[in-house]
Amino acid sequence: MTDDLFQAMAQSIIDGEVEDAERLAREALERGIDPLDAINKGFVVGVNYVGDQYAAGEMFLPDLVLAGEAMKAAVAVLEPEIARRGTEREMLGTVVIGTIEGDIHEIGKTLVATMLSTAGFKVYDLGVDVPVTAFVEKAREVNADIVGVSALLTTTMVKQRDVVEALEDAGLRPKVKVMVGGAPVTQGWADEIGADGYSEDAIGAVALAKRLVGAE
Amino acid sequence: MSRKIKSISDPRISLNILSPEDVQRIHTATLDIIESVGVRFPSHKALDIWEAHGATVDRDTMVVKAPGHLIEEALKKAPPVYTLAARDPAQDLPLDGNHVYVGTDGCGVQIIDLETGELRRSRLQDVADIARVSDDVEEIAFIWTPVSAQDYPPHTRSLYEILAIWENTTKHVQTESIYSEEEARAAVEMAAVIAGGKEELRKRPVLSIMQCTTPPLGQDGGSLEAALVAAEAGLPVGFMTMTSCASTAPATLAGNLVVGNAEVISALAMIELAYPGAPVFYAAAQTAMDLRTGGYTGGGPEDFLFGGATNVLADFYNVPLSMGSFATGAKEPNWQAGVDNSLSTLMACISMSDMLLGVGLLHGSRIWSYEQMLLDCEIYDIVYHMMKGIVVDDETLALDVIRAVGPGGNFLAQKHTKKHMRELWVPQFMDRRPYTEWQEKRDGPRDWAREKARQILATHEPEPLDPKVSAELKRIIASLEK
Ligand code: B12
């Protein structure tokens, strides 16, 4: 019986059905199933399947994003119970991400944020046009492991360096790692400004983030 | 003597892509969206303009909801015809609906160095060099700031760029790199020096400004304010939508057109409300998201259809169109670049888009390549010839000549042949040599294009800008640096 429920959970993620995922999460709570089991034996199985299918070229980005949304919705239903039991969902790390001040390019940054959160990071997405100080303050507030800075313009890319320096000045480095990305950004630039990593796409960003927190 | 400009006119082939009913449905849907959902205008100046004209403005979300009649009436004030002026008046570009002009693409972030072949960050000298090559090439009608001068400070960079272009070409200059009010004011001042005063500039706008909209259904505050400054001075201003199916627009093509159209016409309407009669243009480079990476594709059947369809919309609103063509996603000048850039250019030309942007960039408008630039010019040249169509009259039916030659024989020695042969297309870069020659040399179009670019740079001397004017422009830029 529980196996059927777990299977339906995985399927709701694969189908990207937010409402199904929420309903199944509630059902798990009603039946007294450990919410961490619901996540790890149910929903996560779906996430992994979607990831594999995507890697194989059988599923597309919208599948991945919808799966991420469904996952988020399920976890939101389960979270109060996880907290009540005094347990905790194990996350890979905490990431603060945003598009730098003066820059409103959103899509790439949001994709990276979505992929990171689907992969098991706690992600704080600060949006676009984010001042340097906001990255630092948020990183301190949430005790971030990684700060991700997106810049799509050559005029705003230069401020990625300011984020690295401001984190230094705030005494958060080298504990807080910095990763950078966006159209004009290259590995060479990342090295030049003393960032810890660069990735050209969202899949690479996940691998990079895992490496930075020592998860892989 | 100034270089002639090769523009398409009097087209003899046409395209049937959107019926009048289709256009009407797209228009009605667009007005519905602008009125019921609204478009975000994150600038208090822009919101003041809307409010003064009776639109519903939410100061918190900065979303404007405007009734259809307000948009329609504002758009009616836009001039259907005007001219992009050049430093050399012989190179002026009348946007009259009967010309297609090609510009350089912009504003790339890296360049394949012409001498070393190395991929590196772009700098000011590159802007100057590209402008100089463009000055010599007759396919190129105007120069869009092609790459970014990353060796100059971010807040005045865009101004050094247009200065470098003016110093190296007499053709019209357009930029997308100015998106703050302060830079726009300085650019207007610079353009006025070139034109010979503020009033002259209004008559002869030697500079035009392009801004991007922010899909879905938004604008950028800095871009809006820069555009208002330019429009006030009489510089032509365009708004470009880059809506992308499945990411910043619905997955369906018609839905994409509606979202992009709402962004562009709302921005143009705002300019007309502020400065009635200001020259504006519609600009677009819609695409479909790459389903695997989310990337902006810069090619594919959807792009090509948009290239054909959008001019029908711009015509409906009776304003010129600047259409994104070329702009391949390919990493080097190769098969993909050829396919992407040929089809996109063909489609945009058949519907007589007024401006095409533009030649020279690879990797989704990120990497400048001189080889690609000149190969793109050749693609345009092919389309240019196709657009002349097939003329059928006594002279071209050539019955006398056919009779004279009769069955068998050939037409090589006919006077008619000598008279008309130069109407046939002669390639610069297509490889039509014998196989053995190719086998021996193993070179090809890319090598020849590279050689030609090097040769132009080594020999072409553009009509210089008066050093006094140069100095004055530098002074204007310097005043911003304090
Ligand atoms: C779509 C687009 C826009 C859209 C953005 C829509 C939106 N809601 O986000 C709009 C139309 C609004 C826009 C506006 C402008 N744009 Co624009 N835009 C693009 C375009 C074509 C694609 C960007 C994109 O969305 N790609 C798809 C996503 C999935 O890819 P991505 O952003 O690169 O992100 C991936 C990676 O880079 C990486 N990544 C990204 N961020 C991060 C962060 C981290 C930490 C990591 C690890 C990885 C990572 O992973 C992502 C996912 O795979 C690029 C050209 C290009 N090919 O990149 C120009 C481009 C970036 N834009 C450009 C310009 C000039 C502008 C404007 C200034 C134009 C104007 N005058 O109005 C304005 C910006 C105003 C401002 N203040 O910011 C130029 C920049 C040139 C330069 N020299 O700086 C470019 C290069 C195009 C060009 N050559 O002209 N743009």
Description:
With 216 residues, chain A is an alpha/beta fold. Chain A folds into 2 domains: 2-85, Methyltransferase, Methionine Synthase (B12-binding Domains), Chain A, domain 1; 93-212, Rossmann fold (3-Layer(aba) Sandwich). Chain A has 10 helices and 5 strands, in the order H-H-H-H-E-H-E-H-E-H-H-E-H-E-H. By secondary structure, chain B is an alpha/beta fold. Chain B folds into 2 domains: 8-17 and 75-386, Trimethylamine methyltransferase-like (TIM Barrel), CATH 3.20.20.480; 394-423, no CATH class. In chain B, 45% of the residues lie in helices and 14% in strands. The model of chain B has no long low-confidence stretch (mean pLDDT 96). The chains are: A alpha/beta (216), B alpha/beta (482). Chain A binds chain B through residues 57, 60-62, 102, 104, 107-108, 111, 154-156, 158, 183-184, 186, 201-202, and chain B through 107, 109-110, 122, 148, 150, 154-155, 157, 214, 220, 222, 244, 246-248, 251, 289, 291-295, 366. The structure holds cobalamin. Cobalamin sits between chains A (102-109, 111-112, 148-150, 152-154, 179-184, 199-202, 205) and B (106-109, 148, 176, 179, 211-212, 214-215, 220, 222-223, 242, 248, 293-296, 364-366).
Please name the defining characteristics of this protein.
heterodimer; A: 216 residues; alpha/beta; Methyltransferase, Methionine Synthase (B12-binding Domains), Chain A, domain 1; Rossmann fold; 2 domains; five-stranded parallel beta sheet; 10 helices; 5 strands; B: 482 residues; TIM Barrel; eight-stranded parallel β-barrel; four-stranded mixed beta sheet; 19 strands; binds cobalamin
Distance between the termini of chain B: 40 Å
Ligand roster = cobalamin
Strands of chain A, total number: 5
Strand content of chain B: 5-15%
Largest sheet of chain A: 5 strands, parallel
Bin the helical content of chain A.
55-70%
Q: Classify the secondary structure makeup of chain A into a structural class.
A: alpha/beta
Instruction: Give, in spatial order, the strands making up the sheet with the most strands of chain A.
Output: 2-1-3-4-5
Rg of chain A over CA atoms, rounded to whole Å, is 18 Å
What is the N-to-C order of secondary-structure elements of chain A (H for helix, E for strand)?
HHHHEHEHEHHEHEH
User: What separation lies between the terminal Cα atoms of chain A?
Assistant: 35 Å
- Can you tell me the CATH architecture of the largest domain in chain B? Alpha-Beta Barrel
CATH topology category name of the largest domain in chain B: TIM Barrel
